[in-house]
Amino acid sequence: MAMREIEYCVVDVFTTRAFQGNSAAVVTDGGALSDRAMAHVAAEINVSETAFVLPATPFSQADLRLRWFSPKCEVSMCGHATIAAIQVLAETGKLPAGLATAEQPIVIETKGGMLQAQIEPPTAAPLSESRPIVWLDLVSPKLEKQSLEPERLAGLLGTSPDAFAAEPAPVRTQDNDFIVFVKDVLRLNALQPAFDPLAAWSNTQRLRGICVSTTSTLAPAITVQSRFFAPAAVGIREDPVTGSVHGPLAAHLVECGLVKTFDNLAALTCVQATPTGRAGLIRVLVQRQADNHYEVRIGGQCTPLTRRVLRLGADFSNPVS
Questions:
Q1: What φ, ψ does residue 168 adopt, rounded to 5°?
Q2: What is the spatial distance between Cα 51 and Cα 288, in angstroms, rounded to a whole number?
Q3: 13 & 123 share domain
């Protein structure tokens, strides 16, 4: 049988250390693959998300197009895989013509809307991590306050009803994520979700995922620490680091007055970590606009690339190794 080789790169995002942050795969020649092939490739690679780089749609005014697939389905927004894709394109010299200069904005067409990325070169300061930061402008957050059902939620998340913080109030994001707060990081780390019931509840609520956060962290430099569960929509019990939820999360904290702003600009340092010790650091900038909506930008570093090859059957439907 004829085989086709697909080259891809794997990076850990929101970290400069191997086996930390959140892994993403990037296929830089996604235009050669069918929808079904992309789904099979993502399932075979089996990291939380695989990004496929495609040419921009004519007249879109974008520099490139991205599609993201979890091992289970296509998703409409993925922050860490977008950052991974820009890092891979920059390191492999595959950014579109005219974008070779690091500081230039890169316009990205996606299923969830138009995004913009920018690469900040590594600093030469002593003790700094010598990796660039990829900044990603997210769509403006749209938050809808939700009621808190502590008894029900406690059972689903494996905690007690008194673990939840009264403020900030839970919210639902434009990506259908539910953000809820617990009182401190000890309660956050102690969560033991019942994943099957949590998935069933998420389906009834039409949620992508549940972000559980706390502003009572172990270090003053950390604004907020979180965990993220997505057992229903994308089939991920716990995502190590979820970039896309941190824009809405940061905007919510600013709106509630829990983060200091200077000239309507707030800078947050956010951590997401699993009990197994995998963690990542997300930088977030939140700008309040004149009409009181928020613009958000997330930033992250990546580990060096790991290049791999996947062989597909001729019909692009059966990954073989």
A1: -70, 160
A2: 30
A3: yes
pTM: 0.89
d(C-alpha 165, C-alpha 11), whole Å: 35
179 part of a folded domain: yes
Domain-located, residue 137: no
Q: Is 321 helix (H, G, I), strand (E, B) or coil?
A: coil
Same structural domain for residues 84 and 118?
yes
Cβ neighbours around 242 below 10 Å, total: 29
Q: How many angstroms separate the CA atoms of 79 and 134, rounded?
A: 11
How do residues 87-138 score in pLDDT, each as one tens digit? 999 999 998 876 655 568 999 999 988 999 999 988 754 444 678 999 999 9
Q: Is residue 284 part of a domain?
A: yes
Q: What are phi and psi of 207, to 5 degrees?
A: -100, 145
| Integer Cα distance of 155 and 191 in angstroms | 10
Residue range of the domain that includes 68: 3-132+302-313
